[in-house]
Amino acid sequence: MVPPERQTIPNNDTFKAISSTVEPMLALLSLLANAVILIAMARCRQLRKRSSNVLLIFLAVGDLLHVISSMSIGNAVMRGYPHSYYGCVFVVCTSTLPLQLTISALFIIAVDRFVAVRWPFKHAVYCSRSRIIKYVAVLWVIGAGFIYLPMFGWNLGWINNGKCSYHRLIDKQFRIYAIFFPASLTPLVAMSCIYAYIFYIVIKMSRTVGTGSDAETAANENRRKAFIAAKKCGVIILAYVILILPVDVMNCAHLWLGYVCVACTKMATWGLLIHGIVCPVIYLFQNKLLRTVVVMTLRCRRIDEHALSLAEGSGM
């Protein structure tokens, strides 16, 4: 089937000027925000002990790598580098890899909350820090398997006079059917089902409060705490849906409807950078210990692990 004629919007010099100012500013803010989070995590061993904070590290690393790749790989590709065919394919595929790390971490966050609600007394075993790292690594490798498919021929060919170009090399169908549906939309649907189940369990639990044994009461208390944590993690996933999903929506509109809005697509890509700014703010708002360590880091103060442990134990 021949796609309908594309509807393009003429280039606007004013929008180009705004884009050249806004994009570097967003990239710099995202770079600084995630770097501060990672430095704080590195300085405080107590933060790294929690499996939930390990997942936040993966999210911060994903956003940080995206900024670095957009500033380095993106600028190189815009100038037509590298000039070799396989080098170009490898580089443009690698530019999308950090986003897959973010999606993997978000999915494991949902699974972590599911285990905490479904099996509250076995959560520490099933979702230990080492296992969390292994789960994310496995999902990242699986996602990379999809991302690097163009290396094996699923691309538009070397048709740009030897100059590297993402849009002239990567097939739009590949972006939709090999990346968006299996590696982005499917985990998102699974996360939605998991959180729907969590809400169902908590609603069911609220109807039986005070009617069970001491063990059931303790389990329900653990589920209540897990539900509170799930709501906080749900905000991070909501940020992903609002800020990152529009890029894939614009790709679908281009492929299926033949509609192209250059300005809309460009602003949708800004959402990837804004995501790297919003998420660190969410981490700080929800995690008081992390907020304390970040403040101490910005003030160049020494981290006293014992004092932090005592403060947290007293309800810091």
Explain what you see.
This protein is mainly α and 316 residues long. 78% of the residues lie in helices and 0% in strands. The protein has a single domain (13-308), classed as Rhopdopsin 7-helix transmembrane proteins. The chain contains 14 helices and no strands. It starts with 12 loop residues before the first helix and ends with a helix. It has helices at residues 13-43, 45-48, 51-78, 85-94, 97-118, 123-126, 129-147, 166-169, 172-206, 214-243, 245-257, 262-286, 288-298, 305-313. Helix 3 (51-78) packs antiparallel against helix 4.
CATH-derived architecture: Up-down Bundle
Task: Describe the sheet with the most strands.
Answer: none
Quick check: average pLDDT? 82
How far the N terminus sits from the C terminus, by CA atoms, comes to 62 Å
Question: What's the β-strand tally?
Answer: 0
Transmembrane segments: 25-42, 54-78, 84-111, 132-154, 174-203, 233-256, 268-285
Family: Belongs to the G-protein coupled receptor 1 family.
Membrane topology: Multi-pass membrane protein
Pfam families: 7tm_1
Quick structural overview:
InterPro entries: GPCR_Rhodpsn (IPR000276), GPCR_Rhodpsn_7TM (IPR017452). By secondary structure, the protein is mainly alpha-helical.
